Amino acid sequence: MIEFLKTILFEPLLNLLVFSYNYIPDIGIVIILVTILVRLLLFPSFHKSLKHQKAMTDLQPKMNEIKEKYKDDKERQAKAIMELYSAHKINPLSSCLPLLIQIPILIAMYQVFIQSLSGSNLEGLYSFVPRPDHIDPMFLNFTDLSKKNAIMSVIAAGLQYFQGKL
After folding, report:
1. Is the same domain home to 6 and 68?
2. For every residue of the chain, which 3-state class applies, written as one string?
3. Are residues 81 and 44 both part of a single domain?
4. Which domain holds residue 91?
5. What pTM, to 2 d.p., does this model score?
6. What number is the average pLDDT over the span 18-43?
7. Per-residue pLDDT tens for 115-157?
8. Does 11 share its domain with 83?
9. Are residues 146 and 86 in the same domain?
């Protein structure tokens, strides 16, 4: 199973990163571009998940009414909630499945970034992707991405906060 995931996810992402690095010699910019590309590819499943979560949120007041009405009868409560889901054509697990599909892809991306920044042997490159002598971990000649950096952590946390507010 691990070899399958390595072949399907890790190696294509690594090759995309190294291929891009051969044309854009700043690994930070390449990481940003690869991340944007992967997010665009995952957007349909992410959007579907958000749609289902919104539908569940919209049903929350009705679910609370059912829970209050049948608070002493859990079986009747569960049956009424399932009827509510089927009346609105909602599957309570459908918001989780698209996110579960994204997890292996994000883990593979993380592993690609770690391997490429550590300077370890770039194993798994396709024959048509030129192998660079080394990957310079400097981002805009400002910070070394291969080392822990408090400034970059604060910037990343701030960007994540603002992304959540959008």
Report:
1. yes
2. CHHHHHHHHHHHHHHHHHHHHHHCCCHHHHHHHHHHHHHHHHHHHHHHHHHHHHHHHHHHHHHHHHHHHCCCCHHHHHHHHHHHHHHCCCCCCCCCHHHHHHHHHHHHHHHHHHHHHHCCCCCCCCCCCCCCCCCCCEECCCEECCCCCHHHHHHHHHHHHHHHHC
3. yes
4. 2-135
5. 0.70
6. 89
7. 887 766 777 788 888 888 778 777 787 777 777 776 767 787 8
8. yes
9. no
